[in-house]
C-alpha cells in the first residue's frame, strides 16, 4: 500500500514572496549600479550639447588644417618636469610663443589641473611639475601671436615613462 503525500497548495503568500524577492533584487541591482556610475564618472562631456553640435564642423575643419600643416609635438617627462617640443614637417622648430598643458583624469575631475609651459628655446617648452601616478589625458594647446598653431590630446600613463 502506498501512501500519498498531500500536495501543498500554491497560495497568495507564495506569489507575494516571489514578487517581493524578484523586485527586491531588481531594485537592489539598479541602486547599486546607479551609485557606482555616479561616484566614478562625472558624466559631463560637454556643457551644452546643442552648442557643441553647432561648432563641430568648424572644429573638424580646423583640426584637418592643423594635421595638414605637418606640425607635430613631442611630449616627454623627467623626474620633476614635463617637456614639449614642437616641430614643423621638415624638423625645424615651429614658431610658437606659448604652450598650455591641461591634464585630466579619464574618470573624474577632482585631480585635473592646468600648467603653462615656459619657453626654453625655439620650439622647446618645459613645465616644472611632478605628475601624480596613474592615467592622464593631456590636452596641449600651442599658440603664436594669439593664434592657435597646434591643439592635440594624448592619453598617457605614468608607467610609460618610468614613474
Describe this structure as you would to a colleague.
With 163 residues, the protein is α+β, with helices and mostly antiparallel strands. The protein has 2 domains: 12-41; 49-161, Immunoglobulin-like (Sandwich), CATH 2.60.40.10. It is 31% helix and 34% strand. The protein has 2 helices and 7 strands. The protein has helices spanning 12-40, 49-69, and strands at 72-77, 81-87, 98-104, 113-121, 124-128, 135-144, 147-157. A 7-stranded antiparallel β-sheet has the order 1-2-5-4-3-6-7. The longest helix is centred in the N-terminal third of the chain and has 29 residues, at 12-40. The mean pLDDT is 86. This is Nitrogen fixation protein FixH. The chain crosses the membrane at residues 15-37. Keywords: Membrane, Transmembrane, Transmembrane helix. InterPro entries: FixH, FixH_proteobacterial.
Question: Short summary of the structure?
Answer:
It holds the Pfam family FixH. With 163 residues, this protein is of the alpha+beta class.
Number of strands: 7
Global Rg:
28 Å
What's the total helix number? 2
Shape: elongated
- Gap between N and C termini: 82 Å
Question: What is the fold-level CATH name, i.e. the topology of the largest domain?
Answer: Immunoglobulin-like
- The average pLDDT value, as a whole number, equals 86
Any low-confidence stretches, pLDDT <50, length ≥5? none
Sheet/helix structural class: alpha+beta
Question: Which band does the percent of strand residues land in?
Answer: 25-35%
CATH-scheme architecture of the largest domain? Sandwich
Q: Let me know the CATH homologous superfamily of the largest domain.
A: Immunoglobulins
- So what's the CATH class of the largest domain? Mainly Beta
SSE arrangement, N to C: HHEEEEEEE
Order of adjacent strands in the largest pleated sheet: 1-2-5-4-3-6-7
Please indicate the count of domains: 2
Helix content: 25-40%
Amino acid at each position: 500500500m502506498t501512501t500519498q503525500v498531500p500536495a501543498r497548495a500554491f497560495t497568495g503568500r507564495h506569489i507575494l514572496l516571489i514578487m517581493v524577492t524578484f523586485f527586491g533584487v531588481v531594485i537592489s541591482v539598479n541602486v547599486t549600479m546607479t551609485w557606482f556610475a555616479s561616484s566614478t564618472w562625472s558624466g559631463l562631456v560637454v556643457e551644452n550639447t546643442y552648442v557643441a553640435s553647432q561648432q563641430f564642423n568648424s572644429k573638424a575643419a580646423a583640426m584637418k588644417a592643423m594635421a595638414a600643416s605637418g606640425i607635430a609635438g613631442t611630449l616627454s617627462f623627467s623626474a620633476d618636469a614635463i617637456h614639449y617640443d614642437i616641430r614643423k614637417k621638415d624638423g625645424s622648430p615651429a614658431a610658437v610663443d606659448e604652450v598650455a598643458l591641461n591634464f585630466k583624469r579619464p574618470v573624474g575631475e577632482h585631480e585635473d589641473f592646468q600648467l603653462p609651459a615656459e619657453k626654453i628655446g625655439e620650439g622647446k617648452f618645459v613645465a616644472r611639475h611632478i605628475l601624480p601616478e596613474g592615467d592622464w589625458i593631456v590636452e596641449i594647446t600651442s599658440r603664436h601671436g594669439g593664434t592657435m598653431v597646434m591643439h592635440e590630446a594624448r592619453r598617457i600613463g605614468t608607467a610609460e615613462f618610468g614613474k
